[in-house]
Each structure stands twice: as C-alpha cells, then as structure tokens.
# Entry
Amino acid sequence: KNQVEQSPQSLIILEGKNCTLQCNYTVSPFSNLRWYKQDTGRGPVSLTIMTFSENTKSNGRYTATLDADTKQSSLHITASQLSDSASYICVVSDGDFGNEKLTFGTGTRLTIIP
Amino acid sequence: DGGITQSPKYLFRKEGQNVTLSCEQNLNHDAMYWYRQDPGQGLRLIYYSQIVNDFQKGDIAEGYSVSREKKESFPLTVTSAQKNPTAFYLCASSFASGSTYEQYFGPGTRLTVT
# Structure
C-alpha cells in the first residue's frame, strides 16, 4: 500500500528562525513529489513539484529536496514569517503520465510565534 | 485558490438528506477532482473526471455521485447512503505541466450533517 509519512506532526518556532519538515514515502512507481501549503479552512496551494531527476527546488524562502534512493524529501523554510503558519502537506504521485494517482501525507502543522 | 470556486463555504444538513456541493473553474482545465479531508488524515480521492461526460470513482466513492456536463463544472452530491458525511470537501482541477499534472485546489466546503 502506498504511504506518505510526515514529521513532525506539529512544530512551533520563533519568527525569523529556519525550520525543516520531513517526508518519507513508500510509493511505487514514483512519478513526482509535491509540497503544498494549506492555511486553516482553505484549499492547499502548491509550493513545489519535483520529478525523479530533480533533487532540489526552491520557491522563494521554501526549498524542497528529494532523495529518490532513500525515498525521503524535506521542505526547508528560511527566515520564517508569521504568514508561514499553516499545514504543509507532502504528496507523492505514482503511475504514468496522464494517469497519476496522488497519495497525501497527513501534514505538518507549523506555527510561527512572534 | 486561483480560478476555482466552491460554494457554499459552510453547509449544514440533517441526516438522511442529499446535498450537492458546487465546483466551478474558469482555468480551462480538462481534469477535475473531488477530495475529502478529515482531521488527522490525508486527502482522499472521491471522484475524478478527465473529460466532459466521463468520470471515474476514486478510493472512497461510496455514498457520493458526480456529473460532468460542462468542462467548467463538476458538482458533487453527498447522498444519504454516505455514513460519515461530515468533512471538509475540496475540489481541484489540473492541467499538464511538463511531464506532470499541476493540481489547483478550490477554497473548500465544510459540510456538517447532524
């Protein structure tokens, strides 16, 4: 069964600090890995998508890494801001182009305090 | 949330009643999806449609029905047969981006059944 596990479940950090969120997956075959940000009561918003051949991708202060050999990904947030408070969801896609199925992690709830 | 609208944002129904959740997109995307989100769980796929007048069951389709008469619209009906309908429902649409499908989510509808 395909699974995506995220850690930690929740994290509280001071504004301005950096943090790293983890994602481990057992999805086969692997197509791509996505990170989404979801504010409370809102829909998820895509941060990055990485295919097998990409091992790092940045989107502003967000940097995602992918190690396809160990089936691990991380999302690093630099110089956190209060607006970064949200749930961060790791999603892994399997299957062929045009016929993908997404497996969602349960998310890491990040809280930034002033 | 881009060009995807879901209405209403909050919906309350009595047990035994069918209810229809609206999803409209103006992004000209071919594919549309319905997910359910419950506390502590990853998003789960209910139904998806890759073209007009065609749709497929996802992982948890029992108790739900959909239609896709127009490219822009993909309404979801939660029937009285759905045992635990109270949840946050998310609609998404996608287009091909390189070798993968970028999914955009709507703002969600929170359904409460009592």
Q: What stands out?
A: The first strand of chain B starts at residue 4 and ends at 7. DSSP finds no helices and eleven strands in chain B. Residues 31 and 97 of chain B are 13 Å apart (CA to CA). The radius of gyration of chain B is 13 Å.
